Amino acid sequence: MKILTAAQTRELDQATIREQHLTSAELMERAAEALVEWFCSLLDQEQAGEVLVLCGPGNNGGDGLAAARLLHQAGYQMRVALLPAETQSADWQHNRLHLPEAIPVADISEQQLPAILPGTVVIDALFGTGLARPLAGLAAALVAHLNAARARVVAVDIPSGLFTEAPQPREDVAVRAQHTVSFGTPKLAFLLPQNAEFVGEWHVKDIGLSQEFIAGSTTPWYYTDEAAVAGALPARAQFSHKGTFGHALLLAGSRGKVGAAVLAARACLRGGVGLLTARVPGCGYDIFQTSVPEAMCLADPQPNFISALPDLQPYQAVGIGPGLGQDAASLAVLQQLLQTAAATTAHQKPLPLVIDADALNLLGQHRELLALLPENTVLTPHPKEFERLTEPARDDYHRLELLRQFAQQRRCLVLLKGAYSCLATPTGELHFNSTGNPGMATGGSGDVLTGLLLALRADARLLPFQAAQLGVYAHGRAGDLAAAKTGQAGLIAGDIAHYIGPALREAEA
Ligand SMILES: NC(=O)C1=CN([C@@H]2O[C@H](COP(=O)(O)OP(=O)(O)OC[C@H]3O[C@@H](n4cnc5c(N)ncnc54)[C@H](OP(=O)(O)O)[C@@H]3O)[C@@H](O)[C@H]2O)[C@@H](O)CC1
Ligand SMILES: [K+]
């Protein structure tokens, strides 16, 4: 699903009106109906008590006025407070005119901020995608008043004061909502950690906006939902054999961290690889062979870390990093791998690589090696590891820009891990993942991801981007399926590996 800018959303609005021969008030009515339908499913009249709608002067405020009318008709007890402005939008005026007289309406002023008792349900319809500058004066005072009131807040389209695709100066005021109900497509602002305290849980409602316009819009931002990966995994042909799905090599583990190799290997196998060989330090041989009998094992001559790169000739993809440690000998292995992989071409393509964890840290310490990264290498840094590869980011938006630049410059697929993990492509696209849960913030979760990505990169039927996108999505989905059984607190990385099969099955063609 595409993520659009505020300007594109306005054009989308107009395109929909033209295409479907609607009035803009009719489109606003659809938005209000979608909001109200969601609202009624959350709280009934009794649970909601008196509902206060705060309305700004534009179409966001218009949505609020229309919703107040519809909720009143549904039997909710409504109250409306209006933020004064020199002008109001035409659809605002239309809905102001149609607001039932039974609903009390007050004008907001510095002297008369609306009374908000703790627990009051407030619908924030002050500003939406039309926010033109940071909040100041009365609007800022009102938002601060609301945030201090400990109300239950539902934001319409976007919490007022948040920009759709740009950061706030830090001291800015924005509404802290428990829920945000948006229309059509998700907003970039919803996907960034720094906005989580404002956005709360977000919901995107379909209001029949022009699909043709969306299809024709250019954007660097995408949201990887179920539809984006549907059918991404080709069905297995009747006469396939182990060779069809590739032979992967995993370089992982050091003394005390052999478990990382085990977890990555299990995930790789669950990811459908044909054959897996793991290079582990000498101390890991028995552990590995016992824990993952389905994989082959090449013990390193060194007992505590990996010091020698096996011959790469038999392999269709190589993963390196989980539990690797940062010994100088392992650095030399990484360097040799990068050099050899670029030269090891099958059909003019370099050997697919997946680079994670300590291998990323080694790259961060020796940035001259970045120039050796073969095209379409998959790197899976979390924000700290990414910072070591680039520079500290000022905020989440700046980090996205650094991510985009890095993926373009290095012609790699870079996955910035976190909630809504973001996959950057060599062409400068950013794909935010929709699956996963906080239970996955647990040791070994990243090792499982590396193993799964390795399996999918070894599968020659998938293009590099498809493999990476599917891997991230299925990893999160496996975590969701696992958490449904174990709960989030009880979830461990091995559970994620266990559910990779069911998660991939959902994406099968
Ligand atoms: N697109 C769609 O698909 C659909 C969109 N819909 C809805 O429309 C919303 C967008 O409406 P919108 O464009 O009228 O802008 P909105 O957010 O109400 O604000 C503009 C007003 O605020 C003012 N203002 C701005 N910044 C300010 C500030 N810092 N401090 C004070 N004032 C400030 C600005 O005034 P000005 O900048 O001219 O002074 C203007 O009066 C969208 O979020 C969604 O809810 C749905 O109804 C249907 C489907
Ligand atoms: K709002």
From TrEMBL:
Oligomer status and interactors: Homotetramer.
| Annotated ranges, domain YjeF N-terminal | 9-215
How is the cofactor bound here? Binds 1 potassium ion per subunit.
Family classification: In the C-terminal section; belongs to the NnrD/CARKD family.
Which purpose does this protein serve, as stated in its record? Catalyzes the dehydration of the S-form of NAD(P)HX at the expense of ADP, which is converted to AMP. Together with NAD(P)HX epimerase, which catalyzes the epimerization of the S- and R-forms, the enzyme allows the repair of both epimers of NAD(P)HX, a damaged form of NAD(P)H that is a result of enzymatic or heat-dependent hydration. Bifunctional enzyme that catalyzes the epimerization of the S- and R-forms of NAD(P)HX and the dehydration of the S-form of NAD(P)HX at the expense of ADP, which is converted to AMP. This allows the repair of both epimers of NAD(P)HX, a damaged form of NAD(P)H that is a result of enzymatic or heat-dependent hydration.
Q: Which reaction does it catalyse?
A: (6S)-NADPHX + ADP = AMP + phosphate + NADPH + H(+); (6S)-NADHX + ADP = AMP + phosphate + NADH + H(+); (6R)-NADHX = (6S)-NADHX; (6R)-NADPHX = (6S)-NADPHX
- Domain YjeF C-terminal stretches: 225-507
The source's domain of life comes to Bacteria
Q: What is its EC number?
A: 4.2.1.136, 5.1.99.6
Name what cofactor the protein needs: Mg(2+); K(+)
Instruction: List ligand-binding residues for (6S)-NADPHX.
Output: 59-63, 128-134, 157, 260, 323, 382, 447
Residues noted as binding K(+) in the record, renumbered to the chain: 60, 124, 160
Q: What name does UniProt use for this protein?
A: Bifunctional NAD(P)H-hydrate repair enzyme
Q: Does the keyword Metal-binding apply?
A: yes
Recite the UniProt keywords alphabetically.
Answer: ATP-binding, Isomerase, Lyase, Metal-binding, Multifunctional enzyme, NAD, NADP, Nucleotide-binding, Potassium
Q: Read off the SUPFAM superfamilies from this record.
A: Ribokinase-like (SSF53613), YjeF N-terminal domain-like (SSF64153)
| Gene3D superfamilies in the cross-refs | 3.40.1190.20, YjeF N-terminal domain (3.40.50.10260)
- Which Gene Ontology BP annotations are present? metabolite repair; nicotinamide nucleotide metabolic process
Kindly list the GO molecular function terms attached to this UniProt entry.
Answer: ADP-dependent NAD(P)H-hydrate dehydratase activity; ATP binding; metal ion binding; NAD(P)HX epimerase activity
Annotated positions binding AMP: 417-421, 446
CDD domains found in the cross-reference section: YXKO-related
The answer to whether keyword Metal-binding applies is yes
Q: Supply the gene name.
A: nnrD
